[in-house]
Amino acid sequence: MTAMLYTPIPATIDRVDNETPTIKTFGIRPREPMAFAAGQFVELTVPGIGEAPFTPSSSPRIAERMEITIIKTGRVTDCLHDLAAGAEVGVRGPYGRAYPLDDFKGKKILLAGGAIAGNGWLGALSGAGLWLLLVVVVIVLRNTTPRLRIDQAVKFFWGPVSAVAAVAVVLALIGW
């Protein structure tokens, strides 16, 4: 490791997107390119306040700029949420082990998301529904008897789920 790994690189916030009242996405442009890999994190420094770790939410293929989505939860994140485009911050890293993406090439994988995907009761309800659906499908597929074929089970579960998904899309379009 080099000494520069522990010294923040000056960076400018070039864009701030309000995702929700407590979540913002910051576009950050370090003065020098900062390469990172999926799964690594950086330390973002607010001068005179402190620093906190965040995982970039942008593509690791672009080293000249990164986006970081931050939920307002404490002293450093409160100060970050008060900053506007043009503000100066520091960024150092990257730290941590990257995801071994090459190990997954050609394999079937299941991705399950969470964290700050939805807001309010509708987001919580949809998240709980997705997890319940996953559990039910796994139970059915693991315990399928010769009388119930897998294609029948999948057809049964995807029919009602498609209807619920259509309702969710309509609700999203009307602003729920």
Please list the strands of the largest sheet in the order they lie side by side: 4-3-6-1-2-5
Helix content: 25-40%
Q: Outline the biggest β-sheet.
A: 6 strands, antiparallel
- Overall pLDDT, averaged? 78
Global geometry: elongated
Reading off the top of the CATH hierarchy, the class of the largest domain is best stated as: Mainly Beta
Provide the CATH topology of the largest domain: Elongation Factor Tu (Ef-tu), domain 3
What's the CATH superfamily of the largest domain, by name? Answer: Translation factors
The DSSP helix count reads 3
Tell me the Rg in angstroms. 21 Å
Annotated CATH architecture of the largest domain: Beta Barrel
Total count of strands: 6
Distance between the termini: 49 Å
What order do the helices and strands follow?
Answer: EEEEEHEHH
Ranges where pLDDT stays below 50 over 5 or more residues in a row are none
Number of domains: 2
Structural class: alpha+beta
Q: Which strand-content bin applies to the residues?
A: 25-35%
